[in-house]
Every structure is written in C-alpha cells, then in structure tokens.
Amino acid sequence: MLESNDAVERYIEQSEEEWAKSVATNDASVVRRILADDFVWVLDGRVLDKRTAVLEAADGPGPFLSNTPDYVHVRFFGNTAVAQGSETWTKTGGRRGKFVWTDTWVNREGCWQIVNAQDTVIALTGR
Q1: How far apart are CA 56 and CA 71, in angstroms?
Q2: Cβ distance 35 to 114 under 8 Å?
Q3: What Å distances lie between residue 4 and 7, 78, 114, CA to CA?
Q4: Is 4 helix (H, G, I), strand (E, B) or coil?
C-alpha cells in the first residue's frame, strides 16, 4: 500500500525532530533508524558516514544541553523528499547557535531514510 505524501511528511518531520533532540540525549537509535547505510553527512566542513554518525551519537551529547527544531519544510520529488530546516542549540557555558540544514530522504522498498545531509553551524550572539 502506498502512503500518502501527508503521512510521509509527518513521518519525516517527526524523525527530524527526534534527530534534533537526540543531539542532547545521545539516543543513537534515532540516528540508526533514519540514516541509510550509504548515508553521507557534511557537517560544518567534516564528512561523516552512517557508522561515524551512530558512534558519535552513542558517545554522548558532549557539550550540548539542548537542541530544538525551529522548523522543517518537506518537498517531494517522486521517491525522494528534500527536508530543509533549522535547529537552535545551547551548549555548556551558555554558548548558543543554530544548525541550518538540508536532508535528502529516499524511499527504498517502502522505507524512507536520509541518504545525504548538509548542516551549517551558525553562532548566535547576545541573548
């Protein structure tokens, strides 16, 4: 049975929110579930694969106290969806910033997963 774009959009939005929040909780199960085996992630100048992303998620939140989604927009192109959004984070010592990102999701045999992600880190100054 084919899922409607509305149902898939809700799944992608929820998954993106879970991934954002997992940055501060080290819940590697989220990362393991939503990233495809051939996943490539460009994160502020680094290139990571799924294995590295899962290991880093399992290793712990590091300096992140929180990471909250600001918005997620999803557009569909057949069996591909492009999600674009941002998240606001707080690190120990009160440092704040944003991730502005684009994730490419692909439906493979009924399973929607991220095959590519591009994140840019933006420091926030002031309050």
Answers
A1: 24
A2: yes
A3: 5, 12, 18
A4: coil
- CA dist., res. 48 & res. 43, Å (int): 8
pTM of the model: 0.92
Q: What is the longest distance spanned by two Cα atoms in the chain?
A: 50
60 phi-psi bin (left φ>0, alpha ψ -120 to 50, beta other): left
Q: Please state, in angstroms and rounded to a whole number, the distance separating the CA atoms of residues 42 and 45.
A: 6
Q: What pLDDT sits at residue 61?
A: 72
CA atoms within 13 A on the CB side of 115: 12
| Cβ(39)–Cβ(115) below 8 Å | yes
E strands, the chain, in order:
35-43, 46-49, 64-77, 80-91, 96-108, 111-124
Share of the chain above pLDDT 70, in %: 96
DSSP 14: H
Please give the C-alpha separations between residue 104 and each of 82, 91, 107, 116, in angstroms, as whole numbers.
Answer: 5, 27, 10, 5
Token pair belonging to 83: 């999600």
